[in-house]
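agent: user wants the full assembly modeled, not chains individually. Plan: 1) parse entity lines 2) check alphabet per entity 3) run joint structure prediction 4) return tokens. Steps 1-2 passed, two entities, 967 residues total. Proceeding.
--- entities ---
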Amino acid sequence: MKSAIIVFPGTNRERDMAIALERVSGRKPAMVFHRETALPAGVDLVVLPGGFSHGDYLRCGAMAAQSPIMRAVRDFAAAGGLVLGVCNGFQILTEAGLLPGALLRNATLRFLSMDCHMRVERADTPFTSHWQKGAVFRSPMAHGDGNYFCDDETLARLNGEGLVAFRYATPEGAITAAANRNGARDHIAGILSPNLRICGLMPHPEDLVDPLMGGTDGLPLFTSLLDSLATA
Amino acid sequence: MQLLPAERAAQLSAEFGLKPDEYERVLSILGRSPSLTELGIFSVMWSEHCSYKSSRVWLKTLPTKAPWVIHGPGENAGVIDIGDGLAAIFKMESHNHPSFIEPYQGAATGVGGILRDVFTMGARPIANLNALRFGSPDAPKMKRVIDGVVRGIGGYGNCVGVPTVGGEVNFHPAYNGNPLVNAMTVGIAPRDRIFLSAAAGLGNPVVYVGSKTGRDGIHGATMASTEFSADSEEKRPTVQIGDPFTEKLLIEACLELMATDMIVAIQDMGAAGLTSSSVEMAGKGGVGIELVMDNVPQREVGMTAYEMMLSESQERMLMILKPGREAEAEAIFHKWELDFAVIGHLTDTGRIVIRHKGEIEADIPLAPLESEAPLYRRPTAETPKQPVLAAADLADPIGPLPALEKLVGSLDLCSRRWIWDQYDSTVGGQTVKRPGGADAAVVKLEGLKRALAMTTDCTPRYCQADPEAGGAQAVAEAWRNLTAVGARPLAITDNMNFGNPEKPEIMGQFAAAVRGMGAACLALDFPVVSGNVSLYNETQGRGILPTPAIGGVGVLEDAAQAVGLALQPGLDLVLVGDTQGWLGQSLWLREILGRERGAPPPVDLGAERRNGDFVRARILAGEVAACHDLADGGLLVAVAEMAMGGGTGATLAAPPAGQATQGWWFGEDQARYLLAVQDGAALLEAARQAGVPAAVVGRSGGRDLVLADGSSISVARLAETHEATLPALMNGEAG
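--- prediction returned ---
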């Protein structure tokens, strides 16, 4: 696995992501500044981490989607490369048109920082193969704008084509309104591109990969990616 | 230079907060009437906020040294050696006055300011904490203040990407007109790469970086040095506006520059902005400084030298570079899209000279600006001692479990989840103990086993009743909270929040609190390395409870040894420390009997030391599954907090013979810990050998808290009450 983490000026979870990637792969990811115009040669995974890319005083990720490096990320994705966007990275992927929908202000109108649980909606993707379908895992989340929204047509397509990767759930796996803290449409926490090579999600599995920090629930995301790249 | 006419100068000096004798001193230093800019510089430098003129004589009595202290008070923040070649750099600072006038921005810029104090010394910030005091939630505007302060702290910290990992909150009507917002930042730097603020090198360039200067916050330091009146809302223009995104850029750019050898000295522009940073840097270095205002990056057109020197626009730093390195440094700041301007140079005149549009706007000798600065030993009046209350004399109207349920839902003991759920506590991926998980926050150092433990503490109602005991208790509780996670306590920062120092009873509170703190610092080897003073916390003559908030930092050599407070089943509960059943100033007395009375619990510093050292040794030996210090609410509240933390019940033994029940369960005797251990008998034997009082008081298991008389309450019901209070108060509060 040769991964690259895209760093915008206000990105702030790039180190968390690097720790998680290095933990499973043994290799330090390349840090790629937003003003670069090309990805390092041989990269097989691009990660857009969490943060406040350009301050996000207007629409989160809208400016970042126009950064020079995003042209290279689009080309990489078009060629079937693996792209993971977490939190602000998910917001940027939707703003860049690489994933459908948008992330609105949390329904509570407050920043939400707590552990949530997610149900894995399919296990046959490069991002989820180390879970069972229907498995539930815990993850920290920390966002002000994580309320996933899309129109009816898009929602029907996401559900119809099995492009919902993760849904907010109770620890027992029930899909309830109380478990959906940010008010996301249809409880959506993370989605996939039609070719299953791009994944965006709001919570932060990268912050739960070490027993010292409270658990390793987030590890399967990264071991799945490692596995898919090793066998590719 | 355009000098003010004598009459106008005298009138303005009063408006700027200078006393008549202080203004006379200005005239004698200058030997003439001042210009407007000069009068502005004197008034902010001699404000209480910048000069510490009422507090310095007391603060200098505090212990500040230990073998691990690298820099004590006097720098932007305190610096201590934490091993592995690293230093921890930390400080706590108040933003009380701005947070009342404009809660969101006041609190946000408080966080921004304390972050800059820490990274200006070369540290990457790894944790934020805070200490908040609010009034009664039904006081006018108070919910809006609570909501705005919490949003502001979150809004700033979450965006800069520094986890907010701990803090404390109290509610009391004494804060109705003066809520307190104290923010603390802890950072890490290589111990041989600490950056200081003393300017040096004749001709060296003075460089301004960060945001542009606007007209915001002019005279903020002066505003923070007076009482509030009914028209305080009119002071809103003195509040600054924060931009955490720019702060994030500033952190990255400064740390990148600090990795080179280009910097001679650096300081953030905090209170009194360009004035205090330039005067302090040149003054500390014993040099002169000349600044050209035309070169200051400006956000608005037509700004005067006076406005630029007094602006408190945020996210700005001043530095002295080595000569000839300007272009290299500029490239770093441009990469991060920040302004960079050479605005002057160092001289050997010992004066600060301000030029603008070809005119000299100020020319002041630096030494007298500092040496002639006012210093007051204000009259003090001792707080009268309160009577010691005997637990047996205080009738228990409702019994222990109903009292417990009421207490865990009360404002001062209810869950703070509503607050910390709005703070990103995990960014950085190193947070070992999050808010609510342990007595102190624990953050690991990336790539190392080592971790820091951090806490903020003060019990203002004790300080009000007996400032000396309260001062000692605040320091002891911080030490105890660090100990309870297994950390070795190293040093503190203090944030002294008091009323009007011109009143003898207030100055008496201050002096007594410092006495108590000093004694505790000495006894616990826990020196003060940085601090901040906020006086004049009064509105319309009513002062706050004296609140010397303590921020403590300790170290764990192995993060895996840290213990939390969540109770698991099948363990013995061991109470360490002596229990007299002290109910004076207790929360039980206030919440159940409705009385705020009596002497607060005495602090036996020898017992603190002995009991704490014993508990820490047992934790590091791996014998302790969970640990919680006994504080507000006493033993039964501590048991309940541990039970709610782990979702596990406990069966408790009857109070020892001769103890009044209410005193045993709810007394707030100090120097006590509750430990959950596999083998209670072995722990008691170890305690006996160490000369430490200890007793097995119960055993964990089940889903209820069960007393010896068979009465019980479910942990789930306690948790429901505990969690319901703040959401019920605050949800629906629009932002």
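agent: reporting back. Chain B touches chain A through 36 residues (CB under 8 Å). The first strand of chain B starts at residue 69 and ends at 71.
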